[in-house]
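User: Okay, second chain of the day. Same drill as before: sequence in, structure tokens out.
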Amino acid sequence: MKYTQLGRTGLKVSRLVLGTMNFGPQTNESDSHTLMDAALDAGVNFFDTANVYGWGENKGRTEEILGTWFAQGGDRRDKVVLATKVYGNMGPDGEAWPNHDKLSALNIRRAVDASLKRLQTDHIDLYQFHHVDRSTPAEEIWQAIDVLIQQGKILYAGSSNFAGYKIAQANETAKRLGSFGLVSEQCLYNLMARDAEMEVIPAAQEYGLGVIPWSPLQGGLLGGALRKEREGGGARSTTGRSAEGLADPKVRAQIQAYEDLLDKHGLEPGEVGLAWLLTRPGITGPISGPRTREQLESALRAVELELSEEVLASLEEIFPGPGPSPESFAW
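Assistant: Same drill. Structure tokens below.
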């Protein structure tokens, strides 16, 4: 496994992040534990989750699965850089309830204690804001975060799904208050979704944030969707992204060109999608959310995959990026 610093921090994390969103909804507890053991054995030390994972009436279930895994001992917790998130409504009995969501000081305090209980740990290494809260002052948010850091309940704060200017606002406010500020941004970024290159990734680099791409295979589209369709396995469509994508003739043509290119070079689509992200400036590591041991092993191979200049150039032709800003939208 290869490692890197998380943004401007001294924290060393693996260049592959284990995403746990499928733990509970699609992968049972026993199989989830097996996947986490395998990831740790392979050197993956960066695990990502969120308080809402498990979804619906089972919100929090994914954190509970991590908690029972940590409780098995064997230095599991000490070896893992644990990241979770706060924002979604975690009201009692699964109900939406005032002050049980977003980033008020009250909800941050309540949510972190609930996550610690589910995770069966005394601290969270990276506590991430799952979304922008337009109604809570940044000063209030940082005050709450600084209290948690002083209490030893969290070590670092990160963002997810923030616009570039919101990253700037958050860290300028933190600087003014003497807080450490955001150290990471988790955003949608892959060969097919490159808008983050215009503002989000440049802002993250300017402020010393590590970038953690989610949905690195665009909901399965970049994981060999057409091949699976031909083989009768169908494309993954849990969020509709893959099914909707293949229904678009332009997207379908892109995916066909992508798979043809990789067939020519004897490469696996899912591995290339992850490996491409590892070549991009400012990227800490993509989040891989395996449901099976085979998917985890494929993601691990991606970390070692070196893409040739020819392949990289061809990928750029198939999936052109927006270019730098402001030129990309101003000239």
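The first helix runs from residue 29 to 41.

User: Thanks, on to the next one.
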